[in-house]
Each structure stands twice: as structure tokens, then as C-alpha cells.
Amino acid sequence: MYIQSESNRIIKEINSLRLKKNRDKLGLFILEGERLVNEAEGHIEYILASESYSGGMAADYTVSDRLYDKISDTVSPQGIMAVCRIEEQEFTQKKDASFYILLENIQDPGNMGTIIRTADAAGADGIFLSKGCVDIYNPKTVRSTMGSLFHLPIYRNTDLTELVQRIDVTTVAAYLKGDRTPYDIDMTKGIAIIIGNEANGISDDLSKKADCLVKIPMPGKAESINASAAAAIMIYEAVRQRR
In sequence order, which residues have a C-beta less than 8 Å from that of residue 201 and are 6 or more positions away? Predict the structure, then answer.
């Protein structure tokens, strides 16, 4: 089907999905580019392409290049996008040596996407997000995940303070006032790594519930490191130990 008008129902729907409230209401989100569309197989409602798109993916709708540029959220669009379903998952701990990542109030889409990719690469069993985290279906976050969004369970709007009291793993939180390092902790068994807000770290309530508070060694002059870098250091210490 060829679409020319900005008032078309499909175009209106795509434009509305720029806002989180509409994504939540409709249970849909947008992603762009061949790689992401390919990764989203099984989650796609429909695919839309520009009239000059010459790739190998079949589209349900085609639009003029002018109209595609208007609805695209990328600087150099490839001319292909998909509207996908948001599929919430119910958590059940499935194994003794589970490996989870818990994120509290992460605000930057780039940090969020990078942590999701790192967790995916490390073989994590799931990611839990507090209610204060940036929306993972934000177009910038979706791009930053590079498809890892579809590779592991991600549980949104989680009460992390309640969660750490009921999951059967050791909870290890990155904390500037921690009295141990990640290298002092046994991560070969069930583990949940907790990373907090970029500016404020983890909340007092959550720090009191965590089993271990660790500080990443910083022998240089910097007072702190990026949240996604901290996550990567801790996640890959777990990978090192488990190998």
C-alpha cells in the first residue's frame, strides 16, 4: 500500500509513538534500520519503507521520500522502519546460578542501551528496571541497544527494593562509599549487579537491602565513572569468574 498523506492513519500512529504515553497506551514502539528490523522478527506489527528504499526487506506500506524524512527519527535514515509490539514478561527465577542486572533510575538513553548490549553480550539472564528509568522503547534507547533489546528478558517498572529481598541470589551494588571491590566478591553463583542513577548512584533504601556494596577502584584523579562503564566492569568481572 502506498501512502502519500500525512493525515493517513498509519502516519498519525507512527508520529504518536514518539511520546511514551502513547507507546504505553498502544503497546507499540518504533525502530528504524535494516539491522534492527531484522532483529525484531516475531515482534513486528508492520513495516514501512520509503519509495527509494532498495534493500531486501518487504514492506507493508510504502511512502514518499519526503514523507519518510518527516516521520523518521534518524539523521541518515536507511528508508525502512517497523512498528513493533511491547511485550511485557512475567519473572520466574529459573536456575540457581542466575545472573541479573538491576538498574535504578538510569536516565540517559545511551547509557541504558549500552548496558543492555553489555548484559546481552555477557549472557545475563535478565534486566530489571526501576520505575524511574528512561523508557527502553525511546527511539534513542532502541538504537543504542543494537538489537539486544530482543535477546534477553527486560522487566520494567520493578520495585527493586522489594525484588532484592525475594530473589535467591547475592545482590552486589556499585556504591561510591562501598567498602569492598567487585574483585573481592564471589560471582560464580547466583548474582544480581545493581547500578544506580548517573548523578546520585543507588538510593539509600536500596543500598540498605543489597548484600554487598562495592566501589570500583579509581587510582586516577576522576571522582566517578560513567554508569555504563561501571556496569561493564562489574558485569565482566562476573563473566571472568564464571569462566
Answer: 174, 175, 176
Neighbours of 234 (CB within 10 A): 26
pLDDT of 217 higher than 80: yes
What pLDDT, on a 0 to 100 scale, did the predictor assign at position 94? 75
Q: What's the domain range around 51? A: 2-85
In a domain, 94, yes or no: no
pLDDT tens track for 3-31: 988 999 999 999 999 999 999 999 999 99
Asked whether residue 143 falls in the same domain as residue 24, the answer is: no
Contacts of residue 156, defined as CB under 8 A and 6 or more positions apart, other chains included, come to: 88, 129, 133, 136
pLDDT score at 184: 94
User: How many domains, the chain?
Assistant: 2
User: How far is 133 from 125, CA to CA, in rounded Å?
Assistant: 19
Same domain, 151 and 68: no
Backbone angles phi, psi at 129, to 5 degrees: -115, 135
Report which of 125, 113, 130, 144 is spatially closest to residue 35, judged by C-alpha positions: 144
Q: How many angstroms from the chain centroid is the CA of residue 193?
A: 15
Could you give the CA distance from residue 239 to residue 205 in angstroms, rounded to a whole number? 28
Judge residue 182's burial from the number of C-beta atoms within 10 Å of its C-beta, 0-12 exposed, 13-18 middle, 19 or more buried: buried
How does pLDDT run across 146-190, given as a tens digit for each residue? 999 999 999 999 999 999 999 999 999 999 888 899 999 999 999
- Residue 180 neighbours by CB under 8 Å, 6+ apart: 212, 213, 214, 215
Report if residue 181 sits inside a domain. Answer: yes
Same domain? For 175 and 56 the reply is no
Q: Please compute the mean of the pLDDT values over residues 186-201 and round it to a whole number.
A: 94
CA 170, 236, 225 angle in degrees (round to 5)? Answer: 95
